[in-house]
Design goal:
single chain, 137 residues, alpha+beta, Hypothetical upf0131 protein ytfp, five-stranded mixed barrel, 39% strand, globular
Length: 137
Amino acid sequence: MQSSWKTRFCSAPSPVHGSRIYLFTYGTLMRPELMQFICSRTFSKPMAASLCGYQRHSLKHRHYPGIIPRRGKLTRGYLYRVNAIDLKKLDLYEGDEYDRQIVRVLTRQGARQAWCYIWKQENVGQVLPEDWQLPDE
């Protein structure tokens, strides 16, 4: 029996891409104009990417989502190439509700390591059952 691409991807070894730093976005940061505003610079067009093993959710009393680990789920988003200064600005923007963690995402060019803001386990009570959708998505 052939395995699905999700099974092969999730069990694949982590790739190494030199000094490139990537950020996987799945919510409001998918909008390039917001990334540009926060980081005070322009970005090339983000790459479509998918994150295995996480699910995006709406959050109580918030207009932005969070992702939490969910076996067998897939979150679609965008991958930006960022630098250390961008990450510091983004950390301030995201605040203390998220943990920035390294994850493995899949793109058309293959797997990549990327930073991603994961909703903190201690805040899981704020997670609603429905998926969050970017307006105009």
